[in-house]
Amino acid sequence: MTASLNRREFARLFAVGGSAALLVHPALRSLHAATPAASPLRRLSAPDWEAIRARFIMPRELSVLNAANLCPSPRHVLDTVQSGTERLDRAPVPSFRDESFGAKEWVRERVAAYLRATPEEILITRNTSESNNWISAGLTLGPGDEVLIHADNHPSNNAAWKSRATRYGFTVREVAPITPHPGADALLETFRRAITPATRVLAFTHVTSTVGDLMPADALCALARERGVLSVVDGAQSFGLLDVDLGTMRPDFYSGSAHKWVCGPKEVGVLYVNRAVQERFWPSVISAYPGRVGISRTHESMGQRDEAAIRALGEQLDVLSEIGRGEIEARSRALTTELIDGLASLRDVQLWTSRDASRRVAVVSFQPGTLDPRKTLAALEADGIVAAMRGGTDRPGIRFSPHFYNNSADVQRSVAAIGRYIGSGL
Ligand SMILES: Cc1ncc(COP(=O)(O)O)c(C=O)c1O
Question: Cβ(237)–Cβ(207) under 8 Å?
């Protein structure tokens, strides 16, 4: 637990109206079948995935393979958001408001510990879009400067850089995606060749949302450092899924959202800003109620926040740690391997995602024969399967993204559905 607020204090803080309903993640108990009650954070057994699944309110017959877009939250996240909001509205007294506000620092410590950074480097934002936009809005760039982006980045990254380039006169150059993933060395070499003496920023996505490519983030950040270039890592598809270690990766910026792989609350995000660049980074929003440590003192005064939701992020990160970050990644990867093998065995499936587990994690994009992606998505929904689609002409089709709450039955059902649609048409 943290130096400033231990778990018991936290529990007291969020006791509802003095009732016995302490809001300290009940999910921390019984996630592991044989874990002794006396030491809830010590893992002696494999996670009980069915018990973990039971904490989500989505019905068992709904197979939700859409973590890359929006992850459902488990019951305890909903409870924390609901009860914190209710308590505030029932008695918006200064003492509770102060306590809620102070709990943000507890959450910052959880985020920092989770990402292996320091609280002084963490901003609590509203989502990855906001974090990415703060980065492109907060750096001073002008004519003669160049920002190198991966074309597979999200619009909150690339469209924002392009808009700012138009306004401030710097240049944006894109590295085209290579599909299928050519391997870490080839990607690194591609970026190495693309960097020029004018390059000031390299912005890429840790795991691409388009086809799920795992980028060699540590090596790309090292390359940027070598060349005196700032590194921007969009972690929307890695935060909560991969065991991210920013201490090793050493990016200048890393962004993420709570509502994706973290399975946390909606509209809470994170932005890591390496100490080394904080002096060069301007705040985008200036208002009241800044944070209390490090960069949050200057860059996180955003007025009234949804503190109940922010608090739920801190709790959920503890729950993920209790389940086991490695275990979560391993399960998502195993389900993805099953999925990708199943899809590859079907006639006429064009996989956009690499089958090589070192080149992808848990996002799988593919074109099912000649089927229209929109109709396929609708058919999946009608069959109780939640996916996402890619329209247009650039690697179009369906995207599945399984997470730890899924199981083999979800995967098999999804593969069978795609096989049926290809076989009989839609
Ligand atoms: C790589 C990437 N970056 C940014 C975002 C934006 O995330 P949010 O909607 O949480 O702001 C997404 C959303 O899918 C994404 O996949």
Answer: yes
Question: Does the C-beta of 209 come closer than 6 Å to ligand 1?
Answer: yes
How large is the average pLDDT for residues 47-68? 97
Ligand 1 atom closest to the Cα of residue 208 is 1
Mutate which of 132, 211, 257, 365 for ligand 1? The one with the most ligand atoms within 8 Å of its CB, which is 257
- pTM for this structure? 0.91
pLDDT tens figures, 266-310: 999 999 999 999 999 999 999 999 999 999 999 999 999 999 999
205 CA → ligand 1 middle, Å: 10
Q: Answer yes or no: are the C-beta atoms of 76 and 24 closer than 8 Å.
A: no
Q: Are strands 122-125 and 269-273 parallel, antiparallel or unpaired?
A: antiparallel
Instruction: Classify burial at 150, counting beta carbons within 10 Å of its beta carbon; exposed 0-12, middle 13-18, buried 19 or more.
Output: buried
What tens digit of pLDDT does each residue of 387-404 get?
A: 999 999 999 999 999 999
CATH architecture of 326-424: Alpha-Beta Complex (3.90)
CA of 100 from ligand 1 middle (Å) equals 27
With residues binned 3-state (H G I as helix, E B as strand, rest as coil), the percentages for the chain, rounded to 5, are 40, 15, 40
Q: Determine the 3-state secondary structure of 175 from DSSP.
A: strand
268, 269, 273, 278: CA torsion to nearest 10: -50
CB atoms closer than 10 angstroms to residue 216: 20
CATH topology match: 107-320 vs 326-424: no
Is the beta carbon of 129 within 6 A of some atom in ligand 1?
yes
Q: Does the beta carbon of 401 sit less than 6 angstroms from any atom of ligand 1? A: no
Domain ranges of the chain: 107-320, 326-424
Can you tell me which residue has the tokens 């996989």? 351
The alpha carbon of 37 and the centre of ligand 1 are apart by a number of angstroms equal to 38
Tell me the residue length of the chain: 426
Do 230 and 139 meet the contact criterion of CB atoms below 8 Å apart? yes
Mean pLDDT of the chain: 92
Fold topology of 107-320: Aspartate Aminotransferase; domain 2 (3.40.640)
pLDDT recorded at residue 45: 78
For residue 361, the Cα-to-chain-centroid distance in whole angstroms is 13
Quick check: 126 and 303 in contact, CB under 8 A? Answer: no
- Count the neighbouring beta carbons within 10 Å of the beta carbon of residue 417: 20
Radius of gyration of the chain from its Cα atoms, rounded to whole angstroms: 22
Atom nearest to 130 CA in ligand 1: 11
